[in-house]
Amino acid sequence: MIVAAIKPTIHKAPEGVPYRHLFAPSNMMGYRQGILQAVDAVISQMNKTERPFTGASLAEVGEKFDRHGPADFEQGVSMDECLEEVQRLYMDDCIYFHDEGYVAHLNCPVVMPALVAEVISSAINTSMDTWDQSIGATLMEQKLVRWTLDGIGFPEDGEGIFTSGGTQSNLMGMLLARDHYISSRYGDSAKIGGLPVDSSRFRIFCSEMSHFSIQKAASLLGLGQHAVVQVAADDCYRMDMTALREAIEMQRAIGNIPIAVVGTAGTTDFGSIDPLRSIAQMAREYGLWFHVDAAYGGGLMLSDLHKEKLTGIEEADSATIDYHKTFFLPVCASGFFMRDRQHVRHISYHADYLNPKEQERAGVPNMVSKSLQTTRRFDALKLWMTLRTMGRSELGRYIDRIVELAQETAGLLREARDFEVLHRPEISAIVFRYCPVGEGDKQEVNLNELNAGIRKRMFASGRSLIAGTKVYGETYLKFTLLNPQTPVSVMEEIIGMIRAHGEALVREQEQAMACA
Ligand SMILES: *Cc1c(COP(=O)(O)O)cnc(C)c1O
């Protein structure tokens, strides 16, 4: 165990000493004290937090900020005072993803080795852009890129990079798809020559359940959102292969140019996984780039029980994996991976001051050449310390449990006569709605309003936070389960809360109608 002695003579910077806030060997007492104070503030918050959210309204939270203004930032206060303020302004009313009542979006509870890693990486403040700023950190990231490439099943010449999130990874996937097409079709480089006139006819295919970041990428890449053709999903919310073929043929028939298809492994709403193998085959048939968005489903690769659900991802040209979703790491931690490292050339730039070409030829690993970012956090340390302390297998058991919990919860909802469940969960998301059992046709409840109302009341009570979504225009509720510690009894309670809010809303509606 590492225990560091702090030598008071050289490490303690008394009040009034200039630069005592600087992270420096002379200020190690202050460093330890500050970090421990922060840890204590978090612990005291954990002790008093009993629900994922207090339910505070925007007005209530906003009011706390009323007496704060630019003058606050003029002169410093003590760390004690500052922490108290942070507790009041932020921690008291924030959303706690670790709470078992939080079952809304794709925010995971985090594992502790990653929090330990954050302490180290934020103090040392490595930037990943070049070897001469990062040394071992670059090699650690490269080992983890290799580990992930193996998990995906990409060959030896695969390549990857840590990114800020699935949105950036998907942007990189679409960038490679576009530029690969341009260079192979026109022999030009889009990086230098920009887009050919034909580019307004480029088309990217993804399922109608795919993530909006694909559209955003198309728009940022100058192809326009209309370049994204949304293909119908089947009744399991996976891309319908007949519809994909029809869509490709149709676009070709009207003179457009299919360049890529995106398969989603874990749609944000349903967790459904597109038929990756069949998509790979069709992509080959039509000569399309095949990108897999596994931002959500990527964590399945950790699980001995469920990894085969990702079968087909190894045939992709590129893939997105979000470690800050199903790998239980704090934000940001995400990655972008490609099967063939020669495509890196579409992204790389050389700056004389940073990563000159001579260095590259000499084999110096400058990660900036593969990244959209320049200065970049050492997020890989979180994954490194997590895998080295827990091992892949223990992390995989966390995944196994959330998949199991989702199945148990879907079972509860299916058994309940007053709930409608839209699908069998593939990962850990469940889309459903409260559907009170009517007595004959007397009951004229508007299910969309009813479920939207339930969600609002759940949010305002703060006891459990659930998500909502629209499926073909109808309002539904959604659970995203990412907490392996949650027993199914808690899910039973949450379902009970939803029902109670639903019943109350129906009663209120009936009373209002009776009065009218
Ligand atoms: C969350 C998500 C994204 C976006 O990832 P960020 O890390 O939030 O940028 C992309 N695709 C899918 C399927 C997702 O679930």
Q: Tally the helices: what do you get?
A: 17
Following the backbone from N to C, one meets helices and strands in this order, namely HHHHEHHHEHHEHEHEHEEHEHHEEHEEH
Annotated CATH architecture of the largest domain: 3-Layer(aba) Sandwich
Which secondary-structure class do the elements indicate? alpha/beta
Major sheet summary line: 7 strands, mixed
Return residue spans where pLDDT drops below 50 for at least 5 consecutive residues.
none
Biggest sheet: strand arrangement = 2-8-7-6-5-3-4
Tell me what portion of residues adopts beta-strand conformation: 5-15%
Number of strands: 12
Task: Please give the radius of gyration in angstroms.
Answer: 26 Å
The span between the termini is 73 Å
Instruction: Estimate nothing, just give the exact number of structural domains.
Output: 3
Described by its quaternary structure, the protein is: single chain
Write a short abstract of this structure.
The protein contains 17 helices and 12 strands. The chain has 516 residues and is α/β, with parallel strands linked by helices.
Question: Main traits of this protein?
Answer:
516 residues, alpha/beta, Aspartate Aminotransferase, domain 2, Aspartate Aminotransferase, domain 1, 3 domains, seven-stranded mixed beta sheet, 17 helices, binds pyridoxal-5'-phosphate
Q: Your description of this structure?
A:
The protein is of the alpha/beta class. It has three domains: 2-84, no CATH class; 126-390, Type I PLP-dependent aspartate aminotransferase-like (Major domain) (Aspartate Aminotransferase, domain 2, 3-Layer(aba) Sandwich); 393-515, Aspartate Aminotransferase, domain 1 (Alpha-Beta Complex). The chain is 43% helix and 12% strand. It contains 17 helices and twelve strands. The chain has helices at 8-11, 28-48, 58-64, 79-91, 112-124, 131-134, 136-152, 166-186, 190-193, 213-220, 241-253, 276-286, 323-326, 357-361, 380-415, 447-461, 488-515; strands spanning 102-103, 159-163, 202-207, 228-231, 257-264, 289-294, 318-322, 334-338, 419-421, 429-434, 465-471, 474-480. The strands form two sheets. Strands 2-8-7-6-5-3-4 form a seven-stranded mixed sheet, sandwiched between helices. Strands 1-11-12-10-9 form a five-stranded mixed sheet, covered by helices on one side. α7 (136-152) runs parallel beside α15 (380-415). The N and C termini lie far apart (73 Å). Bound molecules: pyridoxal-5'-phosphate. The site of pyridoxal-5'-phosphate has 15 residues, from α8.
